[in-house]
Amino acid sequence: MLGTAARVAEQPDRGSASGHLRRAYTAAYALHPEPGRAYSEAIKAVECAAHATVEPNNTKATLGTMLTQLRQHPGQWVVALPGTTGVEGENVVYAMASLLWKGQTSRHGAQQPTREETADEARMAVDLATSLVRWFADGAVRRR
Shortest CA distance to 54 belongs to which of 129, 46, 95, 6? Predict the structure, then answer.
């Protein structure tokens, strides 16, 4: 699935999503994994893939700002599997992206010590990113 997602993301409007996704996978599944790097690259891959769809006019878009857009504008997104209510698919995309974003514990410093992500967390982050990158890059998630 990674290979397909990375190939689909090789589009000018998806930036360097493909490269970030490949680096995330390598860092997560290497003989000596680098979980923090894998997680960071996974988020960057999703940011690149989703940017043109969610916030094309925001040059400083992050996954956090994109989550705000997804949450504040329900019904603006077409999802290939919309669900019976029409927004269930949007909710799944939001939940997956939110889980990815909020799960990175080492992104910022704080008063309390931060910790590096575990190998299991990094692998799950890469798996989430692989699906999200593919969905945004191939149009399975798009603006209405």
Answer: 46
